[in-house]
Amino acid sequence: MTNYGAIPTSSHPSLGVDLEYISRAKHRIKSGLATRRPWKLMFDYDSMTVPHGFFDAISRIKTNLGYFRANYVIGVLFILFISLLYHPTSLLVLAILVVFWIFLYFLRDEPLIVFGYQIDDRTVMVALSVLTVVMLMLTHATVNILGSLLTAAVLVLVHAGVRRSDNLFLDEEAAAATEVSGLTSYPSS
Q1: Which residues contact 159 (CB under 8 A, 6 or more apart)?
Q2: What is the pTM (predicted TM-score) of this model?
Q3: What does the buried/exposed string (b/e) look like for 60-70 if buried means 16 or more CB atoms within 10 Å of the residue's CB?
Q4: pLDDT in tens, 177-189
Q5: What residue spans define the domains of the chain?
Q6: Of the candidate ranges 57-71, 146-160, 162-176, the one whose mean pLDDT is the lowest
Q7: How far is the CA of 23 from the CAs of 11, 18, 58, 102, 166, in angstroms?
Q8: Which backbone phi and psi does 97 adopt, to 5 degrees?
Q9: Which residue has the higher pLDDT, 179 or 118?
Q10: For 35-80, what is the HEC assignment?
Q11: pLDDT, mean over the chain
Q12: Which residue, 12, 25, 181, 188, is most buried by CB atoms nearer than 10 A?
């Protein structure tokens, strides 16, 4: 088939929609990972000091949680993954639940419609959260999962409290996004 400058058309219209959906999903995942900061910056030894007091620690935690958000999420998921290596059933259930979360919550552009009723995002999030908790409890790895999440939360809070935040610079666009979201800082670079 030659098309010499003509716009090629697909004989399968659903294939184009599927490829567009996959392309959009890849773009969203890349843009989400684009907020990840360099690990070398995150674990800079010279930036690790004990906070001067409680309010200094809270300020550091807020700033670092906003700045290293993607890194912390990756770290928590890695710790959770490591803890589930000895529970392959739980790992499989978690992988299936991640697929549900990705397609039903994160990558959805249009509202979810079930039996002609529009379901809002909050309802979808609550339903997926309940489903996740119930399914993971049924795999009998609840203590393991809760322990790994608690460990990850402690590690994140300790790092965020010890990591100095005075060398993390905000730009004007990030400061505006911070004020809208109510966080102390959410810079982008």
Answers
A1: 42, 64
A2: 0.61
A3: bbbbbbbbbee
A4: 544 444 444 444 4
A5: 37-87+141-189, 93-135
A6: 162-176
A7: 20, 9, 40, 14, 38
A8: -65, -35
A9: 118
A10: CCCCHHHHCCHHHECCCCCHHHHHHHHHHHHHHCHHHHHHHHHHHH
A11: 76
A12: 25
Cα angle: 43, vertex 44, 50; to 5 degrees = 90
CA gap 18, 50 in Å, rounded: 51
Q: Please, are residues 154 and 59 in contact by the beta-carbon 8 Å criterion?
A: no
Which has the closest alpha carbon to 148: 65, 86, 70? 86
Backbone torsions φ then ψ of 187, nearest 5 degrees: -75, 160
CA contacts within 13 A on the Cβ side of 52: 4
CA-CA distance, 23 to 144, in Å (whole number)? 36
CB-neighbour burial class of residue 83 (10 A; exposed 0-12, middle 13-18, buried 19+):
buried
Burial 115-127 (b: 16+ CB within 10 A, else e): eeeeeeeeebeee
Within 13 Å and on the Cβ side, how many CA atoms surround 179? 6
At residue 92, what is the residue type? L
Per-residue pLDDT reduced to its tens digit, 136-157: 888 888 888 889 889 999 999 9
What is the mean pLDDT of the segment spanning 78-102?
86
SS (H, E, C) 93-128: HHHHHHHHHHHHHHCCCCCEEECCEEECHHHHHHHH
